[in-house]
Every structure is written in structure tokens, then in C-alpha cells.
Amino acid sequence: MAWEKGYRKVLLQLDSTTAINILSSHDHTEHRYRNLVLQFQGLIQRNWEVRISHIYREGNKVADFLANTGHSVSIGYHVFESSDSGLTYWILYDVLGISQTRLI
Known about the structure:
37% of the residues lie in helices and 12% in strands. By secondary structure, the chain is of the alpha+beta class. Strands 1-2 form a two-stranded parallel sheet.
């Protein structure tokens, strides 16, 4: 979606260091999601700047909200507008940098 909208500098923040390591690796001969990983890498290697970094789930409430919402929708491609229920609140939460204590 970012590519199609013309963005050429993208910061991809993931809350999974495992996913970051898999995407950064070049050896996927034995990985069970090899085809999916290669598709992601193909997208990342287009003529644009994609920086991948780790972020704790608590630091990205919008992503957390969307991930939880994803459990209640059908499989497929979905676009959520910021006016969707609850999303505007979490966007503001992230913009203001409101943090939450991480429970371990």
C-alpha cells in the first residue's frame, strides 16, 4: 500500500525480533514460511528506502488495535479509516507519545 501511494521512505516497525531476524536473513531454505518471507523481501528490496526497527507492542497502540481487530474480520485485505471505531483514539495516543508500563 505504501508503494502504491508513492511513499519511498518507509519506517517498518515490528514488535517481533524474530520476524526482524527472518526478514534480515538471506537463508530461508528450511523456513516453513519461505515463500511468504521471500515475497516480503521482494517488496522491501524495491527501489525505495525501507528501514526495519523493533518497537515494543506498548509503543504502537494503533498496530496493537489493528492486530486485535484483525481477529474479528474475515481473512483478506482490509483498509481501516481513522474514523473507524476506536482507531482515532489510538492514533492520538501514539502521536502524543503516551506510554504504558510494560508488564513482564
